[in-house]
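Sorry, can you check?
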Amino acid sequence: MKLIHQVAAGALGLTLAVSALANETDDAMRKLATESGCFACHSIESSDTGPNGVKPVGPAWREVAAQYAGKPGAQDFLTRIVLEGSSPYASHWQGKVSGLSMPPNAVAITEGNARMLVSWILSLKK
């Protein structure tokens, strides 16, 4: 019985540690997104408003995560879109968001930070 309690206590401790680490990652990624200007056009939840109180022009990141879930190469593709921008003529977000295309952001975020942010975005669950 003592062993069961020790295992349960260990599992609880591990769960709390993982949860704390996830919260730290969330906070760090939100900070990076804020500093890089991402929230001027995007939100995490589709119901969120931007810093100016208006619904963002870009897709919510949970919607992006759902759109690209399980797609091979999604992280590389989205990192390139963040850095280089997207074409308004090939956007699958047309009619779903008010923005037409994503501008290039290589001046606002490094490739490494963009890759980390995209990885975090793709980990979001709807």
In short: The mean pLDDT is 81. The CA atoms of residues 65 and 71 lie 10 Å apart.
